[in-house]
Amino acid sequence: MTPFAIAGVQMHVNALQPNEDGMLHRLDLLMARFPWTQMVLFSELAPFGPLPKFALPLRNDTVERFCEAARRHHIWLIPGSMFEAAEDGCIYNSSTVINPDGDIVCTYRKMFPFRPYEEGIAAGTEFCVFDVPDIGRFGLSICYDMWFPETTRQLTSQGVEVVLHPVLTGTTDREAKLSIARATAAQFQCYVFDVNGLGAGGVGKSLVVDPSATVLHQSAGQEDMFPIEVDLDNVRRQRERGMKGLGQVLKSFRDREVDFSVYDRSSGTDAYLHGLGPLAIPHQDASGTLRADLAAPSVQLCQNGHAQKTGHLSAGTVPGANGEIPLIPS
């Protein structure tokens, strides 16, 4: 048995003021109540909320406070994510992994911003995989990334056994996302820790799933701290023998007899997709039927040449009677 205790923190997130003090308070409370916890995961955009106007450089005073807290409690700490104002001129949705010595071991930039609603946010291109010594291999995925199984395929093909998945879902598709989290655990024979926020941080319903798609814990719609001891040997046994002694899906993918031409952008296999119209927020046409805008959004390049889609709305907000209303990234 290779046990490891991971705690999720589902907490209320404010959109217009920092949440770091509340996060650190809850972390202190969690460690006082459950001192056997070894890793703590917060929800997507928990420190500063869903407005990219609060973006900061990757290394900042808030991150330093989280590093000190990880060192003080001797835990692995993933403080959700925050909007990163990068040197290349882009804004990314970035998550940081801090080890028990208070050192940053890796950073992950969300690969699939929730476009078209999360406009103005650039996509990352590098995966985040890290080892906890004598325990196992972990990987990061942020919210909408999990809708694209290729991201989890890449992580688990590198040996990831636990997918840490901070989310910010306050929309009506939360139930679909919970289904995807369960399916991901079964498809890739891994643990999934899916941690959502409350208020401007989401509708809650955080979820922990084991490699057989069994739900180990699901939060409701109130604040919650849920330390769960996982067994990484369970992952290894299921990958060797199959889920419940049945499907050995990772081996089957490894031994596949087909290469998928859809991943070759020059193959033409994905021609149908190019006929679906622009990636834009639907509007009403004259008949009242919802449709996507016919005009494609403009594209702005960051200093590094990465495309950054822009439109007539501020990134992450919609206009409201009392000013900007934060959208809920996914």
Number of strands: 22
CATH architecture of the domain at 3-231: 4-Layer Sandwich
CATH class of the domain at 3-231: Alpha Beta
Spatial order of strands in the largest sheet = 8-9-10-11-14-15
CATH topology value of the domain at 3-231: Nitrilase/N-carbamoyl-D-aminoacid amidohydrolase
Cα radius of gyration in angstroms: 20 Å
Q: What structural class do helix, strand and pairing data support?
A: alpha/beta
Strand content: 25-35%
Uncertain regions: pLDDT < 50 for 5+ in a row?
310-323
CATH superfamily of the domain at 3-231: Carbon-nitrogen hydrolase
Work out the helix count: 6
Instruction: Give the overall pLDDT as a whole number.
Output: 91
Q: Can you summarize the main beta sheet? A: 6 strands, mixed
Roughly how many Å apart are the termini?
35 Å
Q: Which of globular, elongated, flat, extended, rod-shaped describes the shape?
A: globular
Helix share, percent = 10-25%
Summarize the structure in words.
- Helix 1 packs parallel to helix 2.
- This protein has a six-stranded mixed β-sheet, with helices on one face. The chain has a four-stranded mixed β-sheet with strand order 4-3-1-16.
- It has 330 residues and is α/β, with parallel strands linked by helices.
- The protein has a domain of 229 residues: Nitrilase/N-carbamoyl-D-aminoacid amidohydrolase, CATH 3.60.110.
- The two termini are 35 Å apart.
